[in-house]
Amino acid sequence: MMATPNALWFTQMIEYEVPGVRQQALAQALVARSEELATRCAGLQGVSIQASDDGSRVLQYLQWQSRQAWAAAAVYFVDEPFLELLAQHQARGVRFAAYQTLRSLVRGADGGLHCQLSEAQAYQGA
Fold this sequence. Notes:
Layout: E1 9-17, H1 23-40, E2 44-51, E3 57-64, H2 67-77, H3 82-88, E4 93-101, E5 105-107, E6 113-115, H4 119-123
Antiparallel strand pairs: 1-3, 1-4, 2-3, 5-6
């Protein structure tokens, strides 16, 4: 299925494989870098840093307003010491993935799951 122009968000996921003793330190470093990125990039809507139960992986989930917002923020990525971060935390592998969010369900006050709409879609009556 191809992404549509009506996609809600552009989601970027980066999974890091690390030794268990480095998992918490990497997670903390990613939180700090994400907070800094959020101050510079208005198109960054949300970030989640997740740690696997086995201690070997950290997932960085970044939700952008759109693919265009992500592309506009890419100028900041050039200055990021990404390879230094990987070396410092002894990352053995890194996987990147990107997705267009087509629908997002959230639990409403009534307890049911409801489709979350972007402001543009709500305005257009979608």
